[in-house]
Amino acid sequence: SGPYERWKKAADDMLWQQKRAMQKIDGPVHVVLTVEDKGRIDADNCGKCVLDFCVRHEIIADDRREIVRKLTIQFGDVQGCQVEVTAA
Whole-angstrom Cα distance, residue 7 to residue 13? Predict the structure, then answer.
């Protein structure tokens, strides 16, 4: 959809600004997604697109259950969203 495509473009742009600080994690991970606490977004709609983004940019190896061992989606005081990926 149009909004999703715009989100992907904006997310790609933000990632390129941070690229030097990132490392790929090959094994199991825990992912914490903090979403801006405004608007009408549902928490369950956020996880898939963020995990797909992380796989597409090789931040994580895959989004299978063997790799993503824990996914936390929360609302918080951030602009847009913040994603933290740590080795499990």
Answer: 10
Token pair for 62: 């895959």
Residue 31 and residue 85 in contact, taking contact as beta carbons nearer than 8 Å: yes
Give the integer Cα–Cα distance in Å for 22 and 15: 9
pTM of the model: 0.80
Closest CA to 33 of 2, 13, 59, 9: 59
Residue 11 DSSP code = H
- The pLDDT tens digits for 53-70 are 899 888 999 999 999 999
Structure tokens given for 78: 């951030």
pLDDT band at 30 (very low <50, low <70, confident <90, very high): very high
Q: Is there a contact between 28 and 59 (Cβ–Cβ < 8 Å)? A: no
